């Protein structure tokens, strides 16, 4: 495999897969690897889910693209099933998480503009990740990712995640805030959950209501059943004005969505936003098939049961060494002692255990397995990780 013509934007692992099925990835020589990462929270239904494969194959042979200059029946159908599941009013289909977030952040600016703001600010969180387009990158916390790109730092107020007092303080200090934009669980930033769990979202929404700000959730990673609900906010009584998603939405087929409700509905009109590819017949039919599977199976319940099982099995075995777990459903963080050297863990898990994992926040093993993993596979994820980690203690 030669990467000569590829820009070196990723530190790629020295392996590639030629085939995937369910929770398993296979190399050219058919060596199976247990996938507890699913392409970074993307293939929630497992690799090559038959219903999704069928949707892709049928639509690829029927009609792939017409552009949004025309009505797209599958986009209407995908919009209905998605908005109904997400409890939102309408959707704009994009092609990725960053694009969905770009739409959300543009909406917030338009919302402010219509009220006469000169240069509005959006509250975002430390350790957040929202994407790589300029506006979504500006909202992202990681200074290394932002370095050199002249990000629009003055348009954002960055506060610690999970702390409602700092939001109240920001409301007193600034009169130009138009929205809060937050991940219900921070994925890239360390699998961080708020101390009071999803109640934090209710507190944030209350502040938004009090100050007439938009309450905007980035569910690019937490959405589409990942945490055991269609969207993570549904674990709470909170309701966002703007909701973005991508990743699991297409189970590997690229598509993103920005949904709106109530006062955020109707802000975008003809010409104010768009995408040549957004919501093609092919991508939309895939979304419809993913939501059809989620709605007509026990997959989301399975994500909760198996996610808890994986966490409990690991903490039962390694809790005595200071290992703890956090997350929801199949979005799992296994927190290792801070002084532990984790630099080789991803490579060792792959080579010694044939297990695909990821490390985030320096010392947190991030597990994002398929939502429909069997008990035998969940047991193997836990046991392979325990076998990998135990000798280090
Ligand atoms: C919470 C969150 N938002 C946005 C993004 C960006 O999504 P994409 O890589 O599809 O642009 C990601 C990707 O990791 C994410 O986790």
CATH superfamily of the largest domain: Type I PLP-dependent aspartate aminotransferase-like (Major domain)
Quickly name the level 1 CATH class of the largest domain. Answer: Alpha Beta
What topology, given as strand order, has the largest sheet? Answer: 4-10-9-8-7-5-6
Report the principal-axis shape: globular
Q: Provide the CATH architecture of the largest domain.
A: 3-Layer(aba) Sandwich
Main structural class: alpha/beta
User: What is the overall number of helices?
Assistant: 12
Major beta sheet summary: 7 strands, mixed
Q: Gap between N and C termini, in Å? A: 37 Å
How would you spell out the order of helices and strands? Answer: EEEHHHEHEHHEHEHEEEHHEEHEEEH
- Provide the CATH topology of the largest domain: Aspartate Aminotransferase, domain 2
Uncertain spans: none
Bound molecules: pyridoxal-5'-phosphate
Keywords:
393 residues; Aspartate Aminotransferase, domain 2; binds pyridoxal-5'-phosphate; Aspartate Aminotransferase, domain 1; four-stranded mixed sheet; seven-stranded mixed sheet; globular
Please give a structural write-up:
The protein has 393 residues and is of the alpha/beta class. It folds into two domains: 19-49 and 298-392, Aspartate Aminotransferase, domain 1; 51-295, Aspartate Aminotransferase, domain 2 (3-Layer(aba) Sandwich), CATH 3.40.640.10. The protein is built from twelve helices and 15 strands. It has helices at 38-41, 50-60, 73-86, 97-113, 134-139, 143-146, 164-173, 199-211, 281-295, 299-318, 345-353, 375-389; strands at residues 19-21, 24-26, 32-35, 90-94, 121-125, 156-159, 177-182, 214-218, 242-245, 256-260, 324-328, 331-335, 355-356, 358-360, 364-367. A seven-stranded mixed beta sheet has the order 4-10-9-8-7-5-6, with helices on both faces. A four-stranded mixed beta sheet has the order 1-2-3-13. It has a four-stranded antiparallel beta sheet with strand order 11-12-15-14, covered by helices on one side. Helix 7 (164-173) runs parallel beside helix 8 and helix 11 crosses helix 12 (375-389). The two termini are 37 Å apart. The mean pLDDT is 97. It binds pyridoxal-5'-phosphate.
């Amino acid at each position: 495999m030669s990467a000569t013509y590829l820009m070196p934007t990723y530190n790629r692992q020295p392996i590639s897969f030629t085939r995937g099925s369910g929770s398993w990835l296979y190399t050219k020589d058919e060596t199976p690897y247990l996938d507890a990462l699913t392409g970074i929270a993307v293939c929630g239904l497992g690799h090559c889910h038959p219903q999704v494969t069928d949707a892709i194959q049928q639509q690829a042979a029927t009609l792939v693209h017409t552009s949004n200059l025309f009505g797209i029946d599958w986009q209407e159908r995908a919009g209905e099933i998605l908005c109904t599941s997400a409890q939102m009013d309408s959707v704009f289909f994009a092609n990725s998480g960053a694009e969905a977030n770009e739409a959300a952040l543009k909406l917030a600016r338009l919302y402010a503009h219509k009220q006469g703001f000169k240069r509005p600010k959006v509250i975002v969180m430390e350790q957040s990740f929202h994407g790589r387009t300029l506006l979504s990158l500006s909202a992202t916390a990681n200074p290394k990712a932002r370095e050199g790109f002249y990000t629009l730092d003055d348009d954002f107020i960055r506060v610690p995640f999970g702390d409602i007092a700092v939001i109240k303080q920001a409301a007193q200090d600034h009169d130009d805030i138009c929205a809060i934009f937050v991940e219900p669980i921070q994925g890239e930033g360390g699998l961080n959950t708020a101390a009071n769990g999803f109640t934090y979202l209710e507190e944030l929404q209350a502040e938004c209501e009090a100050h007439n700000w938009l309450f905007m959730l980035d569910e690019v990673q937490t959405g589409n059943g990942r945490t055991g609900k269609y969207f993570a906010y549904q674990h709470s009584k909170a309701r966002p004005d703007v909701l973005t998603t991508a990743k699991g939405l297409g189970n590997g087929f690229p598509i993103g969505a920005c949904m709106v409700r109530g006062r955020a509905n109707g802000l975008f009109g003809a010409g104010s936003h768009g995408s040549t590819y957004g919501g093609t017949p092919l991508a939309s039919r895939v979304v419809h098939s993913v939501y059809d599977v989620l709605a007509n199976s026990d997959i989301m319940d399975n994500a909760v049961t198996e996610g808890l099982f994986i966490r409990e099995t690991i903490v039962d075995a390694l809790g005595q060494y200071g290992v703890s777990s956090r997350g929801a459903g199949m979005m799992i963080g296994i927190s290792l002692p801070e002084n532990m050297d984790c630099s080789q863990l991803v490579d060792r898990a792959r080579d010694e255990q044939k297990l695909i994992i990821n490390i985030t926040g320096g010392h947190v093993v991030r597990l994002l397995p398929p939502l429909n993993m069997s008990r035998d596979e969940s047991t193997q994820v836990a046991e392979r990780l325990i076998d990998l980690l135990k000798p280090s203690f």
